[in-house]
């Protein structure tokens, strides 16, 4: 009978159990359970990397809307006015300005209002 060297399978098993450290129950010690838990965890991670972009965009829009309403405009009016005024600032930066620097945001709102009125 030929000789069988088992190092590859052992390395794979050890790597899987290493990645499953911190999982609950048998999922951190039983290879089969660890493999199943990792499949689930990786699918959640893949899904949520995409959802994170969606979640942050919602947060930014909420912050911009709140700041725009303090300046007497809705989010839609504000964004439309910025586009007409030729101001190209993305939502991430606008949300940061809305939270940290109300005076600068007020100037953006004034520019948007003037561009909408014209």
From TrEMBL:
Keyword presence, RNA-binding: yes
Transmembrane regions listed in the UniProt entry: none
Molecular function terms, GO-annotated: rRNA binding; structural constituent of ribosome
Keyword Membrane: no
Entry GO CC: ribonucleoprotein complex; ribosome
Any GO BP: ribosomal large subunit assembly
Keyword field: Ribonucleoprotein, Ribosomal protein, RNA-binding, rRNA-binding
NCBIfam families xref list: rplT_bact
Annotated family: Belongs to the bacterial ribosomal protein bL20 family.
Function comment: Binds directly to 23S ribosomal RNA and is necessary for the in vitro assembly process of the 50S ribosomal subunit. It is not involved in the protein synthesizing functions of that subunit.
UniProt name for this protein: Large ribosomal subunit protein bL20
Lineage: Bacteria, Bacillati, Actinomycetota, Thermoleophilia, Solirubrobacterales
């Amino acid at each position: 009978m030929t000789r069988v060297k088992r190092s590859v399978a052992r390395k794979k098993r050890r790597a899987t159990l290493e990645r499953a450290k911190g999982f609950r129950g048998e999922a951190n010690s039983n290879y089969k359970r660890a493999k199943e838990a990792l499949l689930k965890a990786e699918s959640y991670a893949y899904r949520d990397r995409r959802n994170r972009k969606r979640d942050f965009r919602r947060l930014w829009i909420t912050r911009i809307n709140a700041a725009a309403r303090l300046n007497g405009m809705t989010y839609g009016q504000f964004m439309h006015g910025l586009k007409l005024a030729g101001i190209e600032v993305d939502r991430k930066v606008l949300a940061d300005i809305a939270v940290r620097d109300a005076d600068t945001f007020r100037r953006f709102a004034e520019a948007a209002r003037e561009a909408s009125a014209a």
